[in-house]
Amino acid sequence: MPEILILQNxxxxxxxxxxxxxxxxxxxxxxxxxxxxxxxxxxxxxxLCVVKDWIILVKHVxxxxxxxxxxxxxxxxxxxxxxxxxxxxxxxxxRTSWCMNIHHDAIFETGNTxxxxxxxxNCKHLYPEEFLARMKLLRDLV
Length: 142
What we know:
Elements: H1 2-16, E1 21-22, H2 32-42, E2 47-59, E3 73-83, E4 94-95, E5 101-103, E6 107-109, E7 113-118, E8 122-126, H3 128-141
Parallel strand pairs: 2-7, 2-8
Antiparallel strand pairs: 1-8, 2-3, 3-4, 5-6, 6-7
C-alpha cells in the first residue's frame, strides 16, 4: 500500500504541476447517479468508472486550421471513486485509453469504459515528445 501512495504522490506532482487551463468538464457529486443513467442510455453494457482529481491530457499537433478532437485526449485521475468492474481500487489512480467521445460535459468515453469526471479538472496540452515522455514515466512507475 505505501508503494501506491508514493506512486500517486509522484504522479500528482509531475502532472498536476504542468501549466494548464481549467476545463468546462466535470459534474458535482450529487449528479453522479444522473450521469450513470446517461451512460446506460448510450450503451448499457459498457463499464462505468467514476473519478475525481483528474486532468485531461491533450496531445498537441501543430497544424493550421485544426482543432483538438476527442481522439487526441486521455484522462489521468488520481482518485477513483468507484469502478464497477473492480479494475481500479477506490482511492487509486487510472490513466484512460484514448477518448472516443465526451457526453454531457462530464462523461469521457473510451472504447471499453465511460469515465464520469467529478469536480473541476484541468486540460494540459503536451507536444508529442513531451506527451510520450510523460506516458513513459507513468509506465515506468507502474
